[in-house]
Design goal:
The protein is built from six helices and no strands. The chain is mainly alpha-helical. It has one domain. Helix 2 crosses helix 4, helix 3 packs antiparallel against helix 4 and helix 5 packs antiparallel against helix 6. The longest helix has 30 residues.
């Protein structure tokens, strides 16, 4: 499975700048895990809207939230020595995906005109957690505790594959299966602004988003390389 490596070395790997088994890291990872679990429960179970086809899974933000929750659970398992599986590709992909979500959301949100919102908006604390706090928590772990990235090309391939899967999901299923939101060109796509674009315009936007994700992945790799040049702690 290319998402994960079979096991960790018996000693603390050199990539770590913080001891992954330290009490402070244990507390940090529990906080990250519980926050992620709570917001997954809120967004998907308690307040998830399953009336439209695709439900809450129409939105890339929810994909990022679920994957962040899974990564948080795996990092906690490593700290508690409940698992020996390592997850270099998944950690890197989720870090880049979180970056994509942050950049795209705030770019469109600050542009106004309800480009990304339909229905009842989230309370501000939800938006700030999902589009700022959660990514920052995962980035800190990825860079300073876990030490992502170690499999750059596999990570890049997996990221592009994930983005392509989401594009196929919204274009081939979500859009055709829904009749809202309604735009100037089409209807049913999960984000209102997408319904104002012709197909070539939408794919131009998707390509820009994928390029941004790849650039963020390269940035994370560069930061990891720079941090590795320091002296590991633990």
């Amino acid at each position: 499975m290319f998402w994960a490596l079979p096991k960790l070395r018996a000693s603390v790997p050199d990539r770590y700048r913080l001891d992954p088994h330290a009490r402070s890291v244990l507390i940090y990872r529990w906080v990250v895990f519980l926050l992620a679990a709570g917001f997954v429960l809120r967004q998907i179970v308690i307040h998830g809207d399953y009336t439209p086809a695709g439900g809450p899974f129409r939105h890339l933000t929810v994909w990022a939230l679920l994957l962040s929750f899974f990564v948080a659970s795996r990092m906690l398992a490593l700290t508690e020595r409940r698992s020996e599986l390592d997850w270099p590709v998944l950690v890197a992909v989720v870090a880049a995906l979180n970056g994509m979500v942050v950049v795209l959301f705030w770019r469109l949100e600050l542009a106004g005109d309800d480009l990304v919102r339909i229905g009842t908006p989230n309370p501000p604390y939800v938006d700030y957690y999902i589009h700022a706090v959660r990514p920052a928590l995962q980035w800190f772990d990825a860079l300073f505790v876990y030490g992502a990235i170690r499999r750059l090309w596999w990570s890049l391939l997996a990221l592009l594959g994930l983005v392509s899967l989401y594009i196929a999901w919204v274009e081939l299923f979500v859009g055709p299966a829904n009749d809202t939101p309604i735009g100037r060109i089409t209807e049913g796509l999960p984000y209102p602004f997408l319904n104002d674009l012709e197909l070539p315009g939408r794919f131009a936007f998707y390509a820009q988003a994928a390029a941004a994700g790849a650039a963020l992945l390269l940035l994370i790799f560069a930061l990891t390389w720079l941090l590795r040049r320091g002296t590991p702690v633990g």
